[in-house]
Records
---
Amino acid sequence: MMRRLLFAEESVMSNALHLLEDLEPSIQEFRDAVLSGLGTRQKTLPCKFFYDADGSRLFDEICNLPEYYPTRTECRLLGEHAGEIAALVGPRARLIEFGSGAGVKIRLLLGPLDRPAAYVPIDISRGHLLAAAAELALDFSGLKIMPICADYTKPFALPALSGSRPGIDVGFFPGSTIGNFTPDEARGFLSRVGRMLGRGSAMVVGVDMPKDESILLSAYNDKAGVTAAFNLNLLIRVNRELGGNFVLDRFVHEARWNGVLGRIEMHLVSRCDQEVRIGSDRFTFAANETIHTENSYKYTIDQFQAMAIGSGYKPKAAWIDEAGLFSVHMLEVHE
Ligand SMILES: C[S@@+](CC[C@H](N)C(=O)[O-])C[C@H]1O[C@@H](n2cnc3c(N)ncnc32)[C@H](O)[C@@H]1O
């Protein structure tokens, strides 16, 4: 992994916006993941590679779709309970957000927080991360912002803070991004993050809940076709960055509910028998064969709290909207 430092947007003349720590995955990592994923019997592509500049823009559009209940429901919950979260967290906390995206939800937590020591947004999508950090610096002048472009499934170190800091570290993982991991991966991620933050730290996690299949299917199969464009953008990215020759209209987006595993699955379905080249590698597709691109697991409060306890956390609070669509959990790192 290449490690280099870049100046964050020079146009932002705030000395509170720190240098970007750049651990963006290399093109070789992307190539290896794509070739190995397309070489398995059920072809797969890792969802973390959705997020190039176009993918991040499309995800932000998804968040505003009428069918996509998670974003507005989670924002409402965070807005309603930010005061309680701030009281549990205490003064001078350092906030560390995993998959910070457009940086919309952190604003809801920052408002009532007592003199936060710093904000560390971590995201794989470098340009989007920089733009969001620069905007936040304009709106929260004086807040120390220390962006890291990294794949949070890989080990990396948190920045050192100068001076004494009486507050705790608080991890923030909204958007039900935890649901993109399998349960085993989610436990591994939570345990690793718990060790990174340290005993006595806190973690705030947004978790989507099981619900009527029709609500789920329309959220991931929106009428405007934005989720379809987001899914297909992965093939555009393979073509552009890895020399692929996917013909886009030979694949179609499909979201399926897998009731046995409690997850939404996103697939790209081949419309015909075809062969695709990526550089010198060739992959054959039968008609209706799919590339599985994303999972989105749904957890009840009890299921998620059991997972958190098994990963070294003590549940401190859980908030749900009145329709029981979405939950926000506050956890304490226990082990
Ligand atoms: C589902 S979006 C959620 C965005 C935002 N947190 C929200 O709640 O609206 C996932 C975010 O995590 C980032 N991301 C996905 N996989 C990642 C990984 N392995 N490492 C770092 N960032 C990742 C994406 O770029 C994207 O911004």
Note: The chain has nine helices and 15 strands.
---
Amino acid sequence: MTEPTKDNTFCFYPFYALVFKLYENQDLKAVAPCCMMHDTWKPNIDQVNSVLSKEELEGLNPYEIFYHEKFKELRKNLLNNVRDSNCATCWKQEDKGILSHRMYSKWLFEDEFNTDLREVDVSISNKCNLACRMCNVGSSHQLWEDVDKLEKSNKLRLFEKASNHSLRSHNLPQDVKNNYLIQWIYHNTDKIKILKASGGEPLYDKNILDLLRKFVKDGNSKSTELAFHTNAILITDEIIELFNEFKLQRHTFSIDGVDETYEYIRHKADFSILEQNIKNWFKKSNNIHIVNINFVLSALNIGNIIDFLEWIALMFFEKIRCNIFISEVRPEGRGIDIKNLPIEYLKSVQTQILEFKEFKIKKYDFHYEIDKLLSLIDHAIQNNICNLKKLYNEIVLLDGTRNQSYKNYLDFSLIKILENV
Ligand code: SF4
């Protein structure tokens, strides 16, 4: 079986997966085989990368999408060392020397590798319990509160400039519970072997929970794996019971730091509740296969990363296999991008990470994306912008709407840097 390597363009996702996350009203306006494809835009067109256009998607069911000529062409390209332009997210990362998303793709099924739709990854609304600093209204409706306050104080344009227009995303997943694609999944639970969901916060959305109950009712949950991208704040006993009805769980928890750093970034979350919830979930679940943690690297948490890695070890070491994935904050170059930090600060964090790598990593035996982390910091040093004003503006403008001060949350060295702006 072909495997993704640096010397080829192969990727498994287009052979078994579809992602439905971007809508216009009730209609899907983009489709991808992985959640990363939509992170980059088509050159010269105001549209994210998508295998089919909104017009081409009209009226097609998931099978028709999956076997569409354009998907066939994508598969052909990826098998033949052609860098398909839709996969620019991966090529850009690889050109930076970073292990791209495709490198982690795998054939996850027991039978022989073939082309067969088995996984769907859905977002069906922007409803969320949190208002994270790097997020946008397309993924959390709670951020409208910040938009309103910034607008009323005439600071919205300033914030948009500082954050590279991050707040008001164009990709607004509306409440699409009656969308025909979601309905298709609802009526074809036997066909879905891996159900992925993100949001918004999938556990905040009653429609996602109804979809899970339908899998149970149809008797298909025991042959379906669950892979939710969740902030883990809403995992109750009732939800654990529902999760236990499925074949296995391999969720990804979004955790971008520990203690105050976490609470500052993940606004409205409480770190002790997160900890309790994860422990409770761990104790009462009977089908956890693996735990993935996604850490969105930004100027706000880079100084907290060693504490974060130690905390992960404390939570999961010798209990379960744990993968820690590091993502870049988007859009590139926004105020809180690590490229806006001074080189000396980046180098001091880099030294701490190298020490951690040397003395702790082997002991913990987790999959840490430490090399990716180091290459992202290296990239930020090589392409340093050090626009401290932009960093400061993005931080304090949001502090203003939230009645907060970064001085109560961030690491001491970063506070010092910000105080001198
Ligand atoms: S190559 Fe990258 S962008 Fe393309 S489908 Fe694979 S993971 Fe997604």
Note: The chain is about 40% helix and 10% strand.
---
Amino acid sequence: MTEPNGGPAVWQGGTVWLTGLPSAGKTTLALGLAERLRADGHRVQVLDGDELRAALSAELGFSKEDRDTNVRRVGYVAGLLAAHGVTVLAPVIAPYAVSRAAVRDLHAARGVPYLEVHVATSVETCADRDVKGLYAKQAAGDLRGLTGVDDPYEAPVDPDLRLATEELTVEESIQRLRALLTERGLS
Ligand SMILES: Nc1ncnc2c1ncn2[C@@H]1O[C@H](COP(=O)(O)OP(=O)(O)OP(=O)(O)O)[C@@H](O)[C@H]1O
Ligand SMILES: [Mg+2]
């Protein structure tokens, strides 16, 4: 943090992408983290998967190509905001490694920090949580192409942080996220 001319604190912007299966806990952790960061004076923008799809990608479906396009769009917006000092939290499934790599590369090209967090929750636990009822719909045969069940999820091989939510409370995960941001000079 710097305080130019004794003015308000200015934080380094950056993007924290939370990838994981549906119901893994991405939104829960992003909103909890956002609250803490705002309390510390950060400018924070949460780019939630569902919201961004509705706003920017309403014409897209859930094919591999459309999912990739959606992730790249969110990544582009994240990069713009982060370059202007905003801490961007992106709780977005982003199932394909190639799409996530494209977002990482875009940030690198702009010299903007990018952190990938794997919200690592087993498909069994996600199906139990089933916040949106998608796992039940899939099981009933009313939905096809559910990430992690009958559609691919390529788990990050080397994320900046992996959160095993079955072993951590929400609070503990948020603390680990904050520690990561501090370690990388973003908090
Ligand atoms: N340790 C934990 N960490 C995170 N979430 C947890 C944990 N234990 C229970 N939960 C619950 O799991 C649910 C996760 O839902 P959430 O909407 O955050 O998932 P999501 O990953 O954003 O899913 P989607 O991709 O469908 O948007 C919440 O109801 C949350 O309270
Ligand atoms: Mg969510």
Note: The longest strand covers residues 114-120.
---
Amino acid sequence: MSQRIRTRIRVEGIVQGVGFRPFVYSLASRLGLAGYVGNDVDGVFAEAEGPPEAVAAFLTALRADAPPMASIDRIEAAEIPPTGATAFAIVPSEAGGERRALISADTATCADCLAELADPADRRFGYPFINCTNCGPRFTIIRGVPYDRPLTTMAPFAMCERCAAEYHDPANRRFHAQPTCCPDCGPSLRLLDRDWQPAGTQAGDRGAIARAADLLLGGQVLAVKGLGGYHLAVDATSETAAATLRARKHREDKPFAVMVPDLAQARLLCEVDEAAANSLTSRRRPIVLLPRRPQSAVAPSVAPGNRQLGLMLPYTPLHHLLLAAVGRPLVLTSGNVSDEPIAYLDDEARHRLGGIAEAFLTHDRAIETRADDSVVRVVRGRESVVRRSRGYAPEPLRLKSPFPRPVLACGAELKSTFCLAKGHRAVLSQHIGDLENLETLASFTAGIEHLGRLFDIVPEVIAHDLHPDYLSTRYALDLADRDPERLELVGVQHHHAHIASCLADNDAAGPVIGVAFDGTGYGLDGTIWGGEFLIADLAGFRRAGHLAPVPLPGGAAAIRQPWRMAASYLDAALGPDAAPPATLTRHERMWPGIVTIGRRGINSPLTSSAGRMFDAVAAILGVRDEVNYEGQAAIELEQRAEPGETGGYRAGITGGDVLVASGADLIRAVAADLAAGVGAGVIAARFHNGVAALIEDCCTLLRDQTGLGTVALSGGVFQNLLLTRATVDRLTVAGFTVLTHSRVPCNDGGISLGQAVVAAARTSSR
Ligand SMILES: [Zn+2]
Ligand SMILES: [Zn+2]
């Protein structure tokens, strides 16, 4: 008998519920190996016995050919004595198994399922709930662990004989695929009117889709139940339909996302490079923000005044069928009114969306967890997540250095997320929304309990923002209050959390020069920070520089009304001579009062916020003097900037130990150019270049001070691509290593991860 070896193998990562065991089984069978494979609490274990070259090929293929939904953290292999076994088997899960198994994210319909969906001879032909181990719903249908059908929202659907046979056959693509179903045993579609009564006569799922397509083509608004909630859909090429939806949703300017049937159609609407195509077609299927083509067929009301368009491809079989039936792009936007969380329960959808949609395309598989669509963009060929939700969450981020104790980080307020971390893994929640009302708070607290159970993380450290009024901070304090003996509280300054989040995103530890530019964050000195240069590592930071503070006249009112920031900055730049520019004469009457309350500090806290400086410029240039959503003025200012303009303004920098950069210098230059008749587009571009130069100048001074050569860029202001590109270019030319975000958002959606790694660094050093 030729030489044989036996190897014991352990695989960790997302390897359960993703077809890993059948994959191992068929791989071993193909290579003629003996042994077994099974699941336990930590992942997959296996032993493989046979000729050394076959065992080696087996080990290589484990990683290289793993099923698409698997995500392997680690493979360990150790040689053990051969047993002479001749067969390979899948062994039952060990007791307590799958408890710590990692729950995978919802995944777009795979190519095999799509082929069956389109095959008239297949028993799942045209079935809107087709799925397999390589695709389908996961996180949004899971009620508890172990991840098994009874603990999912598929529990009420007993598998028919044929589905059960597939489910139990290790050679089948549906082996242990918990949501396995077919038209005989699974969920079914219904098309309902506003009163939740059947809309017209429909013959089964196909009839419902055909009728739904007719309604859409007739210009009606349709609510469609998706994976993580209800969408509102209209024909994206119909201006009447898009404008109607916008009016009913009270969504004055925020762009709608558009779903297109395939990549070819995406290319008709937008410029899609290779990296963007990869994101669009990835199994995560995010909304990808893309430069739109000027002559595209999309109605103006879909994304008014925006050079970009958010596109996505179908990710459920229902989407594929609906898009094929309609044959044109569809607006597919969150099912809610303005800023409420997306509706995901049927009753909730019926009541909240009944005034918006004419009909509901719904079904009887419940959604357990609300999850919005994720949003990404491509920056320098790399995907950068703007909103991390469906398709990404709750897939853990693996970090090089472990969390010494389990952590719950509660995040901030806007674009809220939380983070549960243990061992080497940080589980970042899906996007929860703005944590400003009871409904979002309920979603936040329920989410913490749910994810804690799924991942078996019982926090011992609670991290929170320093802002005393954030609901997330109050939640953290209340929680710690209930069990002060066991729970340790760690307050983390907002901009330190931003920089730490960027470090964690890059699996770096610092120290770095951190540039945290955003709208609002609670500062250590009681003022509102937001244009910060920090010398930071994970455990701590020093505020090494910042924008010169200016008054925020009227507090929160100045955030909604950028013209107030224009008044404040023009006063700082020009003093008593400042009058409203021609673009803002309609605020002439209020202007002196606003300047006065700012100067006297009446309800006008000081702020070094970079976001407010962008607001001021947008208002001065007449781009936007009042906003309907956060960041709107800055977004429109970026859109307005003249591409190719290379001129830039310069800001003075003073101070020694703490640098102070004069935003007012930039504003003075803006006002001078405007008065000289320079166009708004050119001024906007020069301002962006000026901010990038200001960042470079400060970083260069700080490098001289500290010897640090790495810069981390974080904060919502860096969602601005024009600014980010200009800044990275300058810093790179100046010899810096630049860290930017990709796996987690640079905006406040990434704060909780930053808080978690800061808390870990602080509590481990104690
Ligand atoms: Zn599939
Ligand atoms: Zn069936």
Note: The CA atoms of residues 4 and 51 lie 5 Å apart.
